[in-house]
Specification:
It is a single chain. With 115 residues, the protein is of the alpha+beta class. The chain has a single domain, classed as Protein of unknown function DUF952 (ADP-ribosylation fold), CATH 3.20.170.20. It has helices spanning 11-16, 27-32, 40-51; strands spanning 4-10, 35-36, 57-63, 70-75, 81-86, 94-100. Strands 1-3-6 form a three-stranded antiparallel β-sheet. The radius of gyration is 13 Å and the shape is globular. It starts with a strand and ends in a 15-residue tail after the last strand.
């Protein structure tokens, strides 16, 4: 198994795309032309900065070895390298997916699998 990477999507988007074969893109993914992913070390800050108080979410864990489209590590916040996928991520790459929320103040309970 490769790196475990994480995709955050809204619960509404997740449910609407349930029958599809690929992970649904968020509007920022469509605007930027790639899927934004995070590593384990990056996911909590990403949740706090971009998803605090934004309603129910799905945190999706992915096996990087099963991402078949173009996966690139590119500099973002403070020069950190973030995983970006130029293309689609097939649902076959999912290790697990769990619902969660981030409070407006940034507080969150991560799924058990994150421990």
């Amino acid at each position: 198994m490769g790196h475990t990477l994480f995709k955050i999507v809204t619960l509404d988007l997740w449910q609407a795309a349930d029958a599809g074969t690929n992970l649904p893109p968020m509007s920022i993914d469509v605007d930027d032309g790639f899927l934004h992913l995070s590593t384990r070390e990056q996911v909590e800050e990403t949740l706090r900065l971009h998803f605090a108080g934004k309603g129910p979410l799905m945190l999706v864990a992915l096996d990087s070895d099963l991402i078949t489209d173009d996966l690139r590590w590119e500099p973002s916040r403070g020069g950190q390298l973030f995983p970006h996928v130029y293309g689609d991520v097939e649902k076959a790459a999912i290790i697990w997916a769990e619902p969660m929320e981030v409070a407006a103040n940034g507080a969150m309970d991560l799924p058990e699998q994150m421990a």
